[in-house]
């Protein structure tokens, strides 16, 4: 793509998003916002990056954490996090997603008051860049909404330009019955402004006021913020709640064409940036809607594999991989230049919407009931036209592995390790929440204290106490961290686990989730087998295509695998490879 085609593509996108404005003038403003220095070349590449498989490798894995997941009352939490990363995560993961580290007023960081500052209770930009020097750094671009108490909204209420046009307004008489909501709170909030009474749009909460991207000044300001974060060492931009970005009265206000066009614009800028910038979309929605954010290899580089958490949870509770297998067989490989981000746990709950159409309603209900028996909670969302349904389960994933449908059986560790090994085996890049890495239990006290369901999975560890637990090999925390670390280190050495390596779902016993992975150069094959049940399972010889004259070994146990049946103990995983 030449300079001419870059300019033409940029203008084309802007004309689609803002048909009533001069696209060429707006394109110049976009360039100035994203490349504010070096007027001659604007810091751009002469040619865009071509889609390929070289943005990541099997060595890539991500830790997800809040900036204050570790505290001690004396040191900056980001200093403690840096110490933990260097002490325990170096060589285990090479990427770190620090959840919103900006000043905020609610939602644990997702009601941002100032995108340009680091929350002083966590640290400062020096602490962020220090982590970015050692790990691939991911930050949140909370681009759908800002805090009701932030500078932007205060300026809006006072009628100050340009902020007087920064927020999406509607009227109580407008038909919003089709609007897709992830919450049950009223959509509109009445506020008094210098312009009179206004009703502002609040997709998530009344402390999170939706921005109005119909105003190009909003887009330009977001681009300036992205540039700042890239300059501070951020290399993966997580587009939080991006599906709701564009609104039109009378529509469902989710996944609208302008939203996809804005992402394509961001991808165009990323492809021409001299820095390596990866865009990750956060769209906790059913499969087809989620996959649409790859676009035609011109939107997100990565999308979350959102069906994975509820399907893995079901498989381990029910003792069958039937629905997990059915889903994976129908999943396309990621397009060239794209990848899935695989996970089972994050700072949010276990989303149940992505299970729609994949798990029968009766199975969804049984998973919810089983989680509740473990002390888990359920958060609700409003349905278009009225009514509510479970939006997500709130439960630490490690805690959710304490029992099956049949009850507790003392196999929590084995079940949990199997669930996380599935994440490591799949096509894509694995990501692990810090509380999964540490086997953190449900924090019911935090739920009571903070009055929010999601606090159950947002424990703040006293760092001295955590280190003491990690030094004792008999503790759950030490055992979980050691088991996961060993497997991630082993995984990083296998070319067959490249995020884009060939993947085929095996047709085996329904209790087993089995994959065949083959490296890009076809040199390594790995049969990744995961027994999701508490029963011994025997895989007949014809179930695995172990090529003759190759030496096959289970990478996890070191056992040589000869031709013949392969036995899996309850919850056992095997990585059978021709390259040991």
UniProtKB/TrEMBL annotation:
Entry keyword set: Glycosyltransferase, Transferase
Domain Glycosyl hydrolase family 13 catalytic: 60-465
Ranges in coiled-coil conformation: none
Presence of the UniProt keyword Ribonucleoprotein in the record: no
Keyword Protein biosynthesis: no
Gene3D superfamilies per the UniProt record, alphabetical: Glycosidases, Golgi alpha-mannosidase II, Oligo-1,6-glucosidase, Domain 2
Protein name (record): Sugar phosphorylase
UniProt source species: Salipiger mangrovisoli
